[in-house]
Design goal:
This protein is of the alpha+beta class. It has two domains: about 1-30; about 30-160, Pathogenesis-related Protein p14a (3-Layer(aba) Sandwich). It has helices spanning about 1-30, 50-55, 115-120, and strands spanning about 35, 40-45, 60-65, 75, 80-85, 95-100, 125-130, 130-135, 140-145, 155-160. Strand 8 and strand 9 (about 140-145) form a beta hairpin. About 20% of the residues are buried.
Length: about 160
């Protein structure tokens, strides 16, 4: 019986180490910031239609005036966030920006009302300028506005970002 318990302990330890390694590898492989709502992962720069279909009907949809894009930009408003779409160079509708509202948080746990200290803890590499904290990963960036007094988070936006070459 002791051999069975020992074997089980060795197996469980090995499984825990493997699981930890896989989780660490998955985190290291992250190539962009994403926002998750109702188990739907939303990535800026991604095609909009599959994401919008998965989320279901928006509370409101508004067309935005954008002369550069022939008025095809839209904002889809949901309870906890808004999704702004535009057309890319290939004329595909993509997600340009996701703006969080009360009740939503980034995957790293930042939400409206928190302090700049909370932002720095979640995003140690954030660049701060005049109360705006920006972190970039791949073709995505999160811009967190801590207000004029730089005292609390008043706006969080995921933005599609194309690095200059």
């Amino acid at each position: 019986m002791r051999k069975g318990k020992k074997a089980a302990a060795v197996f469980l330890t090995a499984a825990a180490v493997f699981s930890s390694t896989v989780c660490t590898w998955a985190e290291a492989a992250k190539t962009a910031y994403t926002f998750t709502a109702d188990k739907v992962q939303i990535a800026v720069g991604a095609e909009a239609d599959p994401v919008l279909d998965s989320l279901g009907k928006a509370d409101a949809v508004k067309t935005l005036n954008n002369c550069a894009n022939g008025g095809k930009d839209k904002v889809y408003q949901y309870d906890d966030f808004d999704i702004y779409t535009t057309q890319n160079e290939a004329k595909k509708t993509i997600i340009q920006t996701v703006v969080l509202k009360d009740g939503a948080a980034t995957e790293e746990g930042v939400k409206l009302g928190q302090t700049p200290g909370d932002v720095k803890k979640a995003y140690p590499d954030a660049v701060e300028s005049l109360g705006l904290y920006t972190v970039t990963l791949g073709n995505s960036q999160i811009v967190i506005d801590c207000g004029i007094d730089n005292d609390k988070v008043v706006d969080i936006a995921y933005e599609y970002y194309v690095a200059k070459k």
